[in-house]
């Protein structure tokens, strides 16, 4: 693998987010374009698209040391934990679809968080029976047992080429030596300041001198550096046993949580078989439960496979896609959960014959009302997750979606560890058929139980055609599923990475019965036609931050693109 020594790195800061999409040769195809960048691929080179240029650089650094896409994924994920803690990190979890080129092996890595053994639904329910959102979203009771450290160790052991110490070295160095927080991180800290102030260790880490870090300051995280150093030296034992585990449990229990050392010691990241679906000559490899995303995407594509969308005008195309979304999200709510705890009718849900029946129920000129469950109002879907995509010189691929759930997770930092805990307990159906923070409903299949993993919308995916391949994913709460679906459809339509990431988006999740629409998605005639069909269109301002890598295997050209929705504030060529 021969990389130029004088790489140039194009870093994109897209509204409150520093994003990067680049290939290892570092030469932008359109350097003047502030919102996205594509890189000309040469034989023997690689591409990474992530939400922060420091994380992308970390991945490239590891590739230059002889690592593969999986080593680079470890570097990117651990660095994002340091520089983008509002979205993901060491105290959260991830889901990944990996493709190993040498033997065509596809695998799903489940590093989703898990409920502690002492979980009690009563802790998350108000006296009137409604969900207690504060308990579910803030403080140690909201946190599941983290999965990211175990997942990265598993990837290093089974798929990486380098020692774990080398892959974690960039994150450790950045945490120890410091970096300049970007506008999005500073804004997230400011938005969550009142909650952060509840916890002394959170104040010490995120509110130096009682305020969020100022623009241009160097911010260091020595406690997190120490925790990553222990993981680098001892693998799983560096987090789930010994010094770190004792500090985590002591901090959580002192603040009213219920973790035990046994909870940490029993956690394991898992390899699962991905979901695969064929659609118009492309094979889509995507996430199985405890992700709901892959099942929903496969079900939607199976419904649409019997329809020629290319012969329809925009209103008709959107109509059929929305109706397929509606039906898939209904099944999402009813059936899906942790496969180690719940028997799910996946054979039925993934069957083309089941999709045929669902397709027959779609009227050609009229919306189908979502009336089977009580109406639920969904808040803004948010951007509290991150995704990155990697293709290396050998054709190995990694689609990784990582999260701490809501902005800044639980806002609770475990003293002495630098670990900001997730608030994933809200992703359980804490009260059946009552919406979570993303407006998603759930049944007993997703009820909390000791050791159980909460359902997720994360949908990391790889799309493989005869001549073209894409690695794709996005944050965005419940809209992750539909954003990735729409990205897959655009890729199959022949669009570039930049076009896919830039496309305007729409979303339907069964309840509430409305089509969430990004401003400018539909022209007036299309909006009017959809309204006449019976759709309620509701504008949404908050969408995901998609990161896409595409590979034209005929020309051996790689393109990488980050979402252009946020204006460039720190973009520069180095």
TrEMBL record:
* Organism domain of life: Bacteria
| Pfam families attached to this UniProt entry | G_glu_transpept (PF01019)
Q: Which residues cross the membrane?
A: none
The residue range of the signal peptide is 1-23
Question: Mind telling me how this protein is modified after translation?
Answer: Cleaved by autocatalysis into a large and a small subunit.
E.C. number:
2.3.2.2, 3.4.19.13
Catalytic activity, per the record?
an S-substituted glutathione + H2O = an S-substituted L-cysteinylglycine + L-glutamate; an N-terminal (5-L-glutamyl)-[peptide] + an alpha-amino acid = 5-L-glutamyl amino acid + an N-terminal L-alpha-aminoacyl-[peptide]; glutathione + H2O = L-cysteinylglycine + L-glutamate
Q: Which UniProt keywords apply?
A: Acyltransferase, Glutathione biosynthesis, Hydrolase, Signal, Transferase, Zymogen
Pathway given in the UniProt record: Sulfur metabolism; glutathione metabolism
UniProt lists the family membership as follows:
Belongs to the gamma-glutamyltransferase family.
Q: How does it assemble?
A: This enzyme consists of two polypeptide chains, which are synthesized in precursor form from a single polypeptide.
Record's protein name: Glutathione hydrolase proenzyme
Underlying gene:
ggt
């Amino acid at each position: 693998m021969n990389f130029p020594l004088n790489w140039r790195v194009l870093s994109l800061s897209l509204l409150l987010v520093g994003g990067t999409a680049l290939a290892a040769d570092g030469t932008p195809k359109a350097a003047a374009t502030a919102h996205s960048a594509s890189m000309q691929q040469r034989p023997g080179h690689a591409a990474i698209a992530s939400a922060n240029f420091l994380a992308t650089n970390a991945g490239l650094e590891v590739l230059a040391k002889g690592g593969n896409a999986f080593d680079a994924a470890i570097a990117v994920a651990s660095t994002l934990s340091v520089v983008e803690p509002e979205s993901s990190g060491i105290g959260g979890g991830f889901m990944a679809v990996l493709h190993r080129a040498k033997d065509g092996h596809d695998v799903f890595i489940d590093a989703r968080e898990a409920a502690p053994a002492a979980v009690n639904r009563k802790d998350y329910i108000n006296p009137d029976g409604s969900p207690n959102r504060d308990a579910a979203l803030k403080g140690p009771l909201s946190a599941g047992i983290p999965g990211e450290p175990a997942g990265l160790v598993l990837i290093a052991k089974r798929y990486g080429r380098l020692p774990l110490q080398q892959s974690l070295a960039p994150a450790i160095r950045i945490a120890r030596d410091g970096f300049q927080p970007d506008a999005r991180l500073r804004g997230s800290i400011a938005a969550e300041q009142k909650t952060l102030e509840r916890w002394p260790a959170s104040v010490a880490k995120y509110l130096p001198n009682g305020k969020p870090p100022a623009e241009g300051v160097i911010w260091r995280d020595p406690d997190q550096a120490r925790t990553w150093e222990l993981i680098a030296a001892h693998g799983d034992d560096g987090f789930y046993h010994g010094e770190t585990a004792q500090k985590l449990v002591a901090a959580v229990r002192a603040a009213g949580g219920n973790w035990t050392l046994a909870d940490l010691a029993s956690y394991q990241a898992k390899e699962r078989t991905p979901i695969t679906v064929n659609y118009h000559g492309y094979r889509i490899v995507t996430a199985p439960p405890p992700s709901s995303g892959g099942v929903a995407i496969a079900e939607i594509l199976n419904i649409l496979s019997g329809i020629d969308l290319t012969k329809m005008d925009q209103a008709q195309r959107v109509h059929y896609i929305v109706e397929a979304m509606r039906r898939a999200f209904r099944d999402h709510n009813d059936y899906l959960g942790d496969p180690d705890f719940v028997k799910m009718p996946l054979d039925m849900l993934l069957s083309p014959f089941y999709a045929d029946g669902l397709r027959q129920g779609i009227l050609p000129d009229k919306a189908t009302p979502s009336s089977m469950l009580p109406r639920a109002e969904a808040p803004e879907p948010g951007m509290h997750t991150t995704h990155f995509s990697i293709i290396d010189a050998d054709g190995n691929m990694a689609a990784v979606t990582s999260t701490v759930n809501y902005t800044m997770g639980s806002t609770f930092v475990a003293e002495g560890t630098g670990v900001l805990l997730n608030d994933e307990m809200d992703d359980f159906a804490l009260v059946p058929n009552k919406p979570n923070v993303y407006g998603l409903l759930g049944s007993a299949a997703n009820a909390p139980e000791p050791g159980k993993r909460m359902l997720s919308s994360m949908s990391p995916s790889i799309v493989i055609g005869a001549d073209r391949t894409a690695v794709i994913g996005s944050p965005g709460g419940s809209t992750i599923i539909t954003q990735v679906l729409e990205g897959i459809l655009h890729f199959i339509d022949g669009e570039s990475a930049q076009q896919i990431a830039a496309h305007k988006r729409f979303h339907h999740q069964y309840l509430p019965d409305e089509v969430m629409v990004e401003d400018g998605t539909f022209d007036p005639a299309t909006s009017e036609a959809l309204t006449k069909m019976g759709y309620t269109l509701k504008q949404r301002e908050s969408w995901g931050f998609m990161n896409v890598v595409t590979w034209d295997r005929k020309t051996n050209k790689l393109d990488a693109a980050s979402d252009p929705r946020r204006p460039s504030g720190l973009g520069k060529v180095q």
